[in-house]
Amino acid sequence: MAQTEKYVLNMGPQHPSTHGVLQVQVELDGENIVGAKPIMGYLHRGIEKLMESRTYTQCVPYTDRLDYVSAMNNNLGFCMAVEKLASIEVPRRAEYIRVICAELNRIASHHVFIGSLTNDLGSATGMIYAFRDREKILDLFNIICGARMTAHYIRIGGVAADAQEEFLKGAQEFVNYVPAMLDEYDRIFTGNEIFQARMKGTSIITRETALKYSMSGPNIRASGVDYDIRKIDKYGAYGDFDFEIPLGEQGDNWDRYIVRLKEVQQSANIIQQALDNMPDGPVMAKVPKVLKPPKGDAYHRVENTRGELGFYIVSDGSTKPYRVHIRRPSFVNLQALDSMCQGMLLADAVTAFATIDPLMGEVDC
Amino acid sequence: MHSGILYSTAQALREILMSLVGIPIIVDIIMTVICATILLLIMATSALVFTLGERKICAFIQVRIGPNRVGPGGLLQSVADMIKLMDKEDIVPKGIDKWLWVLSPILLLVPSALIYAFFPFDDGVILADVNVGLFLLIAITSQTVLPFLMGGYASNSKYSMIGGMRTVAQMLGYEVPMVFALMGIVMLTGSLKMSAIVEAQSNVWFIVLQPLAFLIYIVTALLESNRPPFNLVEGESEIIAGPFTEYTGMRWALFFLAEFSNLMCIGILTTTLFLGGWHGPDFLPGFCWFWIKTFICVLFYQWVGWTFPRLRIDTMLSFGWKVLLPIALINVLLTGVGIYIYNIM
Amino acid sequence: MGKYFDKEKLELLKAQFDTAEYDAEQAEPAIYIGKEQLLGLMRVLRETPTYAFDRMSNLTAVDYKEYFEMVYSLYSRRFDMWITVKVKLDHDKPEVESMTQIWEGTNFEERETYDLMGINFIHHPDLRRILMPDNYDAHPLRKDFVPLEPKIEGGVLTWHKQKSMS
Description:
The complex is a heterotrimer. Helices cover 49% and strands 13% of the residues of chain A. Chain A contains 15 helices and 8 strands. By secondary structure, chain B is mostly helical. Chain B has one domain. Chain B is globular. The relative contact order of chain B is 0.13. Chain C has a single domain (3-131), classed as Beta Polymerase, domain 2 (2-Layer Sandwich), CATH 3.30.460.80. Chain C is α/β, with parallel strands linked by helices. In chain C, strands 1, 2, 3, 4 and 5 form a 5-stranded mixed sheet that branches. Chain C has a two-stranded parallel ribbon with strand order 6-7. Chain C has a two-stranded antiparallel ribbon with strand order 8-9. Chain C is elongated, with a radius of gyration of 18 Å. Chain C has 3 helices and 9 strands. Classes of the chains: A alpha+beta, B mainly alpha, C alpha/beta. Chains A and C meet through β6, β7 and β8 of A and β3 and α3 of C.
């Protein structure tokens, strides 16, 4: 009589496809997954604690290191929270430049998503194509602030420097390039039979599960929940733009991929509108050299690439925040990993890691 | 009798040796040793050439430049790689089954080297033209499964074990349709002899007569040599490197060598079985045609490999059993009917 | 950010729960509640159809030296409405009911708060450390935190209290 036994496979923290130092304890029955437990903390740097001993301005670079592939969005979240706490009014032009940068960074981050997903599915070629296009955006960031990934461009009260003509022209060129880019992606992977077979119907997150685990970002939208903070809160200048929220139907890997692909198009739309209606004026509000927000607390959330990024800041009236808490979307989203992997094959687990798109810098904080 | 430069060179060499030694058996032995050495050299150099070729082609497909630092245009990159691999520390993990672990990479190389004896490179240039050539070829190539399973089992690693198990499941999935696909060729030729198979294609290549078998063979050949999109055994994003996860340095290089040797094997086999072997217009000698076709085949397999994502194991198995096998059986039936009609006409 | 919870409704809640209180001066006052009534209040906020706070947007704790304060930011998707609920906890024995009983998605965030702040969540399904090592016996986000010394004992990484600096 044949006898089978379940066994535990430790995927990560050193594994080619766990996106950084995520460790997943996968319980396997043959190649069928019984359960998957994420274990994190390998990249824990204590950013929340570090921020307590820095002034508000000094805190901003730390947010770059949270979700290091969409640094601009994190800068934006933190700066808006501090602005809310200290009641700073940001000039209109700065808001527009912020939106352009944040959306460019969203596209760049989705490039990383597409690249790592195709790489995890065994096609390294797809990765190179996505990273080639990401390079264009990073070059634009290089022009505007001198840094490619950890931008530290959005500052409390505005942005570090006005956007140059060269940057705006480059952004326009990139927006013009987006349709051709998406078309190429369609031809390389989206239309690929194997790619679709691997993605469709696997690792389904139902609407109920997504809501139960407080998921956010493209992951919850792929399950058909219309939840985008850019649209709900209309923070910054987002109220001025007309854009759609792409939704998935059944919440499988395929929907999570398609939703992100469509988001790239929408982001390009937003950038186009921002470029067309760019107001003139200053890019920095009058912020005191020594920023001392009044005593109190504030919670502000923005839509980062991976979902609802919230900053809860407590001020005791001094120059340093008394307490900063960061609600990291990938950290919360990871809770769904177990239910995504159950009943799937080992190969699907890798796809699930890729489509839930966790970023360990953000998860571990 | 046979013609061609290679065959006449060998004959001349044999005559010289005969006049020097005089005993036919010893001359035969010396000739065999020379031929085997040449084949091994071809295998080793082809691995070097194909590594560079693969990297350059892959770079071209992936809009990159590829290796361009060592030597002119990166030509010496694979030599540098080889030196690096030899220089690497040989890590022996704890808790392994030492004998199986050490033997696995060596045993893997044996079948990949052995099958070169059955390839007709030119008219009459074949080391062992046995009566059951094709049968032996299939039997030997399917032996590559065993070292993979050995390495997977002996490495004391779960990734390796999964990889080893996948090899076996995959082999069961592709071997049967492949054999039935090649059955059509054997029916047309009426022989299992490799030289006879090439001879039968002097007028019409089998790709014309056996298009279905050709398609099945392409898929199964990719499966057999673990090329993408069927590199499930070493699917690096799931199970690191499958059976050779725990190997380093030269041991790993042996796996690597076997992999490239297998790639060339399937190129050669496609040429021999479907593309007319060394047959071609007269302005080039036979072995040139043979190598040109082989390189085109290898290029094709690499192109496929760098384009597609990897299949999932269950999809692959059901594809092998539910799609390829019935098509292969239909092909056998159609071939039989065709031969019958041809005979009565 | 959408609108904040109405003051009339806050008044209603105050009538319902005797430990509930808020600062009427503030524009967006947080509602303070005793920890015994927290679970009841949260149930009401989640299940009353006119509130429908279906998302626990943020959950964290703040160390005010004399006491801990749990901060819950709730969001209602249906009404685009916010409320902040705060609970004061004893500094010596910080204990509070786990919100996983109402919002399952708070599992990781409560584990994080337990790990970094040392708040004990009652009725939590899986209360283990999540970011710090399992054998780390301190809570880094507390204000009186002193980093522990790493030491390798018998091949295992262990953490020890620092000897006094004096």
